[in-house]
Structure formats: structure tokens, C-alpha cells
Amino acid sequence: MSDTKSHRAFWFSLLLFTVLTFGLSWTIWIFGLPVSNWYLVAGSFAPTVCGIVVTALFDGKAGLKQIMEKLFIWRVNPLWYVFSFGSTALVVGLALAWYRSIGGVVIQTNDPRQWYLAIPAFFQILFLSVLGEEIGWRGFALPRMQAKMGALLASVLLGLVWSLWHLPLFWHAGNFHSQLPISLFLLQSTALSILITWLYNASGSSLLLVHLFHTASNLTLGVLPILPQNTGGDLRPLWAAVGLLWVLTLSVVIGSRGKLGYKEKPWLK
């Protein structure tokens, strides 16, 4: 394929993936959420479904095989598992410690003695939410984007798209997104997008590690009392957590000289 055709295929595949993902998710969320929360689950699977469809259209069996192989990359440095499971919990824990030190009061909605309940919650988030996203965002889109524009720019743009994809949830009264400023969520998602790219590249393109990190991050918000519903509407601890998250993110960017562990290679081997 010529460079011109390859360039066109790159942009068209990304555009098709984005339009299909937003169209499917937003249609389900806008018209289905008032009826049942199962529509939230259905809408969250659009990125993965669309990523698989568009991969099949443009890369065929080879592309699908590559995605499946990346889902089972587990032989990595154990420190990446520590980072995946514990980094966001540490960030939120530090933010809550600061908040309490200035007199902030939080409502502990989870009994620490029932810590074991976090295990089934983890798998629920993984299989009913995160699995529906990451094959699309990081399995399909990220490898293409960073091959064309570099890891950092790709991460920032993908983070913005990822944030905007959630927009309908901010107008659903029963969803925690409705309690958050969009600007805070955008900053959080962009930082997480950069960290996920770094994790993906440094772990040898492990989509497994990406899924674990995303799931652990979501679980942290459900387990630790940092959301507005736990602080009487006070957003300061959440802003502090996002600030600390950006300190970590900028440290990674500077430490990797903006490359985020990426070594130039085509998205399809």
C-alpha cells in the first residue's frame, strides 16, 4: 500500500471507529438509561465492539489475532502489576490524608472489615465495564495513533476523545458523573490516558495490564470515600487527587522524555 493510501486508511479507520463508537454509545445512553441501568453496560461496550469490527475491516484476521495475543501478555516485570493495582489507590489515599489534615470530614460508606467485597466488585467492573472499552481505545486506536503522531500527542488526543465519550452520563442523575465538573473529569481522563499509554508500551503492549489498571482505578473511586457523595459535596479532595495524578503523569512524561516507552513500529506487525 502506498504512503498516501496508508495515510488515508489511517484517518478513515480512526474516524469510522470514533463515529461508530460515539453513535452507538450515545444512542443507547441517551434513550436507554432512564429505563434501566443495563443500558449503561450496553453502551460501555461500544468501543470494544466497534474496535473489533473496524479492525476486521481494515486489518482482517491478522489484526484480530494481534489484539487477542495482547490480551494475554502477562509475563511482565511484577512492578507493573504493583503499579496497575496500587498507583491510583495511593494517589487517592494521599489526597484523602491531606483533606483530613485540614479538617475535612468524609462519610465512610464501606466497612473496612468487609475488604474482601472489593474482589467481586473488581471483577464486576472488569467484565461489565472496562472490558467493553479498552479493546477499542487501547487495542485499536492507540497503536495506530502513536505510530503516526507519537505516544504523547496520541495519549492526549485519545484522552480528550475518551472524556467526551462519557458526556451523556453527566446528565444522568443516577450516575456519579453527574456530580463532577466536566473540567475535572477531562483532566483526570487525560492524565490516565497518558499513564495507560506508558503502561501499555513499557509492558510490551499488554492489554491485560491496561485492563487491570483501568479496573483498579475505577474500583478506587468506589472503595475510598473521595467522591462528592462522601464529602458532603466538597470537591477539594478530588481536585487534590487529580493534582497528584498529574504530578505522577508529568514525572512519567519527563522521565521518558515524552516518549512514554514507545519504540517506533507499525501498528500491525
What does this structure look like?
The protein is mainly α and 269 residues long. It has one domain. It has ten helices and no strands. Helix 4 packs parallel to helix 9, helix 8 runs antiparallel to helix 9 and helix 8 runs parallel beside helix 10. The radius of gyration is 19 Å and the shape is globular. The two termini are 15 Å apart.
Q: What's a concise summary of this model?
A:
The chain has 269 residues and is mainly α. The chain is built from ten helices and no strands.
Annotation keywords:
269 residues; mainly alpha; 10 helices; 0% strand
What is the secondary structure topology, with strand pairs?
Elements: H1 3-32, H2 38-44, H3 46-71, H4 78-101, H5 118-128, H6 134-149, H7 151-165, H8 182-202, H9 207-223, H10 236-255
Question: How much strand?
Answer: under 5%
- Given as residue ranges, the uncertain stretches (5+ residues, pLDDT < 50) are none
Strand count, sense and closure of the main sheet?
none
Shape: globular
| DSSP helix fraction | 55-70%
Order of helices and strands: HHHHHHHHHH
Distance between the termini: 15 Å
Mean of pLDDT? 92
The count of strands amounts to: 0
Whole-number radius of gyration?
Answer: 19 Å
Structurally, how many domains make up the residues? 1
Count of runs of 4 or more consecutive helical residues: 10
Structural class: mainly alpha
Quaternary state of this entry equals single chain
